[in-house]
Amino acid sequence: MLSVMKGKVIVMVNDRILALCELSNDLLYDKIPEGKISYYVDSSLAAGRAAAKEYTGMDIKKLYHSNNIQIEYRKESKGSFGVMLRGQVVLGKDESKVELYSSSIESLANNSQIYGSAPISYDLALNIHLAHEFFHFLEYKSNNFVSDQLDSVVIMKIFGFQRLAHIKRCSEIAAHGFAKELLHLQYLPNLYDYAYLINTGKMTEKDLSDMMSRMESILG
Ligand SMILES: [Zn+2]
């Protein structure tokens, strides 16, 4: 397990911390009561891992084949506005399709080294992406989205009425957890997204260590 030296504080890179990094990107993150942060982190990770148990030892590309999901490889990612676009997903009743931009997957793999660890291969980066999208396919197929299963948060309170909303990022955390479990990864795969940002100069290692250290203290 990676531990990052930050002054004298050692930040452990673990699933819960990386899951909270993901959760903190939710538009409604500030509406989550402090005491419920762990609930969203742990329930989302558990949902992803539980779903992966059913597919233990199975090859992700075979799973695409047996579920009639087409994989389309595209050469260039068109107009990405500084954000790396790895592909698009079309989910349908009869047919589903995942479009991939090979160049983006390759770029992610080539920039995935972090804190002295070796980069992941193109094939692994591809399988991570496929596993992540396969989880969303399962949510779609069963019409059972992790973010909908978990408690809503109150986003507005007026005269005793309240408006509730779901935390969408919980599905993202579950998809990361699913990919990690299915592919026996060492880390929750959003770590590689941060590695990419660091290696392409959009973030520093210190930014990431500081963020993880903040997340660690929130989780207690
Ligand atoms: Zn996703």
What does it look like?
The protein is an alpha+beta fold and 220 residues long. The chain has one domain. Helix content is 48%, strand content 16%. The protein has nine helices and seven strands. It has a three-stranded mixed β-sheet with strand order 3-5-4. It has a two-stranded antiparallel sheet with strand order 1-2. Strands 6-7 form a two-stranded antiparallel ribbon. Strand 4 and strand 5 form a beta hairpin. Helix 1 runs antiparallel to helix 7, helix 1 crosses helix 9 and helix 2 crosses helix 7. The relative contact order is 0.21. The model has no long low-confidence stretch (mean pLDDT 91). Bound molecules: zinc ion.
Core attributes:
two-stranded antiparallel ribbon; binds zinc ion; 220 residues; alpha+beta; 9 helices; 7 strands; three-stranded mixed sheet
